[in-house]
Amino acid sequence: MNSAEDFVVLIRDEIGLPVTRADLELGFDQVPGWDSLHMLRLVTVLERETGRTISFPDVLQAQSLGSLYRLAVPA
């Protein structure tokens, strides 16, 4: 995963939510169809795709899909 657009495609393909890049900075409660089970699935997929472990306390502090992306793919 090399870009935010790749992340959006990953969410669409693996989680099945029709998100756009503009949705990345929305709060989770504003993402259509989002629920806490999607968070668990997405973190699992991100760890698999990046080969990195993502800190669960950091995940709990995440406010948006964009913040999860930045946890998984630091600059």
| Coarse shape | globular
Structural class: mainly alpha
CATH architecture descriptor text: Orthogonal Bundle
- How much of the sequence lies in strands comes to under 5%
Average pLDDT, rounded to a whole number, is 94
The total domain count is: 1
By DSSP, the count of extended strands is 0
| Main β-sheet description | none
Task: Describe how the helices and strands are arranged.
Elements (H helix, E strand, L loop, with lengths): L3 H12 L20 H15 L5 H6 L3 H8 L3
Give an overview in words.
The chain is mainly α. The protein has a single domain (4-72), classed as Orthogonal Bundle (Non-ribosomal Peptide Synthetase Peptidyl Carrier Protein, Chain A), CATH 1.10.1200.10. The chain has helices at 4-15, 36-50, 56-61, 65-72. Helix 1 (4-15) crosses helix 2. It is globular and about 25 Å long.
Brief sketch in words of this structure:
The chain is mostly helical and 75 residues long.
Q: Main traits of this protein?
A:
single chain; about 80 residues; Non-ribosomal Peptide Synthetase Peptidyl Carrier Protein, Chain A; about 0% strand; globular
